């Protein structure tokens, strides 16, 4: 939630309410007296606001704590029984979904593969149907909101481009989904959703600023700073996919050659592998596939690199070098506390060694000092959890701006 400064009385009340929720979410279980100690709020304010939060079904009392000489303190925790958030992750291959509590507990999850008609309207029809099914399944709970993450790039101020030809218009999606009866809807890129989930539930819980790089069919990224995703004037802050990193004539969908996205995405990894084959290299992977080059995938290339296949090893090492080069630009420019890498990445991999080589060679030593660069904490979970986390974030975090 964005708050305009200076605060009104209603906004002060809302800030205090979210402060209490943040503290409960951070500690899991905590007494009112400890909330007062961490927040600086008066016991009376905490009592009034905690009652309101209980009425809204967001928190609950969980018995009493240890006495320190007076009355036994009341312990508060997030209410896992009466609320839920919906998370939807959309890629060109399908839709993954989950129902989640504010503490990150998964209530339901599913996957829907998409075949045939993959137009924007057809995808929206499927998303609507998935949401309706979750709502039916969890009808005894209150829906706090619907978060949608799309594996896409921002196309304009209110649109995303999924794949190379599917345009997702945020307003069209919001208008349709609002008819389902949930008032709060957030639509973001996958990397923005991953960043939010890392902040709430992953490795970035205590980080003031961090950068997320997601390596998939498209390379996407996000920059989180002071309780909010930094989007920039044209929604393009943190977009490093089209930084030029190679002299190779590999065309990117943006029309340029040698873009980070063109050479280091999973599609770029596969294309560089095939180019090296045409140049005369050989690979056991191709032998095992009996020459079927259409069956080559980035994951197979990585697996064969680990096994020592020379061509695969060359491609994966190059990929690590490209990633490290671009991340050195990020570290030099914005100096985040953490850089979290998701998607096709392994913290103990050959790729990781090459990333570190480039970082140490190209980053300003002062900026790189004590910066964590490695795997995020949420990579084992469905991206739909990150989408649901968008709603949890709105209920737990504030960003401020001055009056215009």
Describe the structure.
This protein has 404 residues and is α/β, with parallel strands linked by helices. It has three domains: 2-79, Arc Repressor Mutant, subunit A (Orthogonal Bundle), CATH 1.10.10.10; 83-200 and 383-396, 2-Layer Sandwich (Nucleotidyltransferase, domain 5); 203-375, Nucleotidyltransferase, domain 5, CATH 3.30.420. 41% of the residues lie in helices and 24% in strands. It is built from 14 helices and 17 strands. The protein has helices spanning 9-27, 32-39, 43-55, 120-137, 170-178, 190-201, 260-264, 266-278, 284-288, 298-306, 310-334, 350-362, 365-368, 383-396, and strands at residues 2-5, 29-31, 59-64, 74-78, 83-90, 94-100, 106-113, 142-150, 152-156, 159-162, 166-169, 185-189, 209-215, 219-225, 338-343, 372-375, 399-402. Strand 9 and strand 10 (159-162) form a beta hairpin. Helix 1 (9-27) crosses helix 3, helix 8 (266-278) crosses helix 11 (310-334) and helix 11 packs parallel to helix 12 (350-362). Mean pLDDT is 87; it is low at 399-404.
């Amino acid at each position: 939630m964005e708050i305009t400064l200076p605060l009104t009385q209603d906004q002060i009340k809302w800030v205090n309410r979210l402060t209490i929720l943040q503290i409960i979410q951070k500690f899991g279980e905590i007494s009112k007296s400890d909330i007062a100690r961490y927040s600086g709020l008066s016991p009376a304010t905490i009592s009034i606001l905690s009652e309101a939060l209980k009425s809204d079904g967001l928190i609950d009392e969980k018995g009493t704590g240890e006495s320190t000489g007076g009355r036994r303190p009341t312990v508060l925790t997030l209410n896992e029984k009466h609320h839920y958030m919906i998370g939807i992750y959309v890629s060109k291959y399908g839709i993954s979904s989950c129902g989640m509590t504010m503490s990150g507990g998964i209530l339901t999850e599913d996957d829907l593969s998409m075949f045939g008609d993959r137009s924007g309207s057809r995808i929206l029809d499927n998303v609507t149907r998935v949401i309706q099914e979750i709502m039916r399944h969890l009808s005894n709970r209150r829906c706090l909101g619907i978060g949608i993450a799309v594996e896409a790039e921002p196309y304009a101020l209110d649109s995303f481009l999924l794949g190379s030809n599917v345009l997702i218009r945020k307003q069209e999606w919001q208008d349709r989904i609002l008819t389902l009866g949930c008032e709060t809807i957030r639509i973001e890129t996958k990397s923005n959703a991953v960043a939010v989930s890392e902040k709430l539930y992953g490795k970035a819980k205590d980080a003031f600023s961090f950068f997320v790089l997601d390596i998939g069919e498209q390379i996407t990224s996000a920059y989180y700073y002071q309780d909010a995703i930094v989007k920039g004037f044209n929604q393009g802050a943190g977009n490093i996919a089209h930084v030029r990193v190679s002299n190779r004539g590999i065309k990117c969908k943006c029309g340029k050659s040698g873009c980070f996205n063109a050479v280091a995405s999973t599609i770029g990894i596969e294309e560089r592998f095939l180019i090296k084959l045409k140049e005369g290299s050989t690979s056991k992977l191709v032998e095992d596939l009996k020459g079927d080059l259409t069956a080559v995938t980035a994951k197979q290339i990585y697996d064969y690199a680990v096994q020592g296949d020379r061509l695969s090893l060359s491609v994966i090492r190059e990929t690590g070098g490209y990633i490290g080069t671009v991340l050195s630009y990020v570290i030099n420019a914005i100096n985040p506390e953490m850089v979290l890498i998701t998607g096709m990445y392994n913290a103990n991999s050959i790729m990781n060694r090459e990333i570190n080589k480039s970082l140490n060679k190209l980053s300003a030593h002062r900026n790189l000092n004590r910066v964590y660069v490695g795997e995020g904490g949420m990579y084992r979970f469905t991206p739909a959890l990150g989408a649901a986390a968008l709603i949890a974030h709105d209920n737990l975090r504030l960003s401020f701006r001055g009056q215009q």
